[in-house]
Design goal:
mainly alpha, Methane Monooxygenase Hydroxylase, Chain G, domain 1, 7 helices, 0% strand, flat
């Protein structure tokens, strides 16, 4: 038989969900710091700091496992239904996306090592021009999406989803910019490949921010908008197609 719901039980469930929400905030802060630190290592050509960023990803993985364990325990103990179950599912998805943001930040740190660890030559700094800008946008999207989750801000969630289009345009612009270096000097092609992988990682960070914003809409409305266009998302979340 299922566990009988009492006022005390509901109070305990609310406390446990608050703790999970707090953990989401901790992971969010850690992964966004990882993005900033990875970009700093690239700007300073600091290989040792890049290795430290990579090593700190283990802490994010540990928090991911901690969240998973708590979610499983909570489902088994409290047997949530309806809105409570949606809340648990949303936390689970958000934590997964945040962990993947940490993985993408690690790729930026690895770029620092590939470009500057005992290399006889280094790329023209202008080749890296688009990396910090895309990193800033991606980090902002993730942070704003988590804020929208915390405050259940549907307007903000839709705004984050709209920014994903801007970030993808930044990625395309970055590719065009890099291609000019290869046309001028074919020896730049090796650098271009590595930098394109970094730009792709930053685009994916924005994509994870978009995902989290979509989960906010799911939590509030029960509508899965992951594969919907912007107009449909606005209609589902706000009751408007504008």
């Amino acid at each position: 038989m299922g566990q009988k719901t009492t006022g005390h039980t509901m109070h305990r469930f609310d406390q446990e969900m608050e703790e999970l929400h707090r953990l989401v905030g901790v992971i969010d802060e850690r992964v966004r710091q990882q993005i900033r630190d990875a970009i700093t290592t690239l700007d300073r050509e600091d290989v040792e700091a890049a290795r430290a960023v990579i090593h700190r990803d283990e802490e994010i993985n540990r928090l991911d496992v901690e969240a998973d364990d708590e979610l499983i325990r909570l489902i088994a103990l409290r047997q949530p239904v309806a809105k409570d179950l949606r809340d648990i599912m949303t936390v689970n998805k958000i934590v997964t996306d945040l962990e993947r943001v940490g993985d993408e930040a690690r790729k930026i740190a690895r770029l620092t090592i590939k470009l500057y660890d005992h290399q006889s030559s280094v790329p023209n700094r202008q080749m890296l021009r688009d990396v910090p800008r895309m990193a800033e946008v991606g980090e902002q999207m993730v942070g704003e999406a988590v804020r929208c989750f915390r405050e259940l801000d549907l307007h903000g969630a839709v705004a984050v989803i709209k920014r994903d289009r801007d970030l993808r345009e930044e990625f395309t612009s970055g590719l065009r910019h890099l291609s000019t270096f290869v046309m001028e000097d074919s020896r730049s092609v090796g650098y271009m490949v590595e930098i394109v992988l970094a730009l792709r990682a930053l685009e994916r960070i924005g994509g994870h921010g978009k995902n989290i914003a979509g989960y906010v809409i799911y939590l509030a409305t029960g509508k899965d908008v992951r594969h919907a266009d912007l107009q449909t998302i606005a209609e589902q979340a706000l009751g408007t197609g504008r």
